[in-house]
Amino acid sequence: MGQYKKNSLTLTGAVSMGTGVMIGAGIFALLGQVAELSGSLFPIAFVVGAVISSFSAYSYIKLSNAFPSAGGLGMYLKKEYGKSTFTAFAALLMAFSMIINESLVARTFGTYVLQLFDVGENTFWVPVLGVALIVLAFVVNISGNKLIEKSSFTMAVLKIVGLAILAIGGLWASGLSFQETIPTSLPDKSVASFIGALALTILAYKGFTTITNSGDEIKKPHKNVGRAIIISIAICVVLYYLVAISVASSLSIEEIIKARDYSLAEAARPAFGKYGVWVTVGVAIIATISGIIASIFAVSRMTAMLTEMKLIPHSHLGMAGRIQKHMLVYIAGIAILLTILFDLSRIASLGAIFYLVMDIGIHYGLLKNLRKKVDFKPAIVITAIALDTIVLTGFVLTKAKSDLTIILVSIGVMLVIYLGEKWFIHRNKKT
Fold this sequence. Notes:
There is one protein chain. This protein is an all-alpha fold and 431 residues long. The chain has 15 helices and no strands. The chain has helices at 11-38, 42-66, 73-81, 85-113, 125-141, 145-174, 191-205, 209-212, 221-250, 253-258, 263-308, 323-341, 344-369, 378-402, 404-430. The chain is globular. The two termini are 31 Å apart.
């Protein structure tokens, strides 16, 4: 695979990649889980999640304006914390969060495809189809930037238009007006549970960070990285809210939770019948394919940069070619393993915890160490830290009651990453 070149991605291409990751994992994989935690206010949870993500995006925009780089988050962390254990730890948390997102998207792909067939639930075909999607995304990525940008843009347009039509059509068929979508009652879930739901909605928006990993590949990066992030979040919050209220107009909360892994397809049945299901599955296929292609592209760039900065270990394992090509192989391999081993709920929980811990680290490093190098407003960054901390705490407390195992796994994996990086960096300093 050839080198990715400067100015090879346009603003449109960057937005396509950002929305590709967000829509691929967000509304299809997470809507049912968000409804389970937030109850009747789940459409509002997506709006609040967008607000919180916008505060977080402020730090990334300021960092990208100051340090545009193909390494994205890895480079930002190095600027904040130097070549330290925490830099490598936080960067790897983000990398694993993105790989987890890929397995989340892959299983979502399998789940929705199977809605076209009468195969029952908990079928082994879900991971089989998920693995097939990861392999396809790997093949597309080794083909280079032009194919990635062209496919991302085409798929982004198709899925945004398709979801908008399904959402508006569902609202029209149910006779629901926009005035009726505004909540008039108190939440039917606890405050902690609603806050826990926000962690998953933030996960649905975190795809904007993949834009930073395109760094100096984007034309006029000092302006266009920030613009692409803002546009991507704006597109997704409108689309997420429309889809959420459309689903709420077709299904009860209990029905959404029962079909939480494929709730959009289930919601299309009352309004459009089997044809609505077919269209929904078609849009889901497009969304998940584009999402995983964009995610693998971004994480391979970041991990290749981390390797070049000697922050993470690397082995060629007999493979020829550039480091990024090797990283594509490793990323696809780990994503395949996660797709086989974990269900959607646990994959999403791991991803949310890893991302929020890393996100807090990004904001704190900017606030503490880069005040003289980056022009930003501390009050906004402090607000982002506070919001992330509240959401992470609420999510962990909520999950500890329902699935303590996944919390323990998350803590265990983070300890292994931190201690492993501490040993690796200490060893490298001696050599």
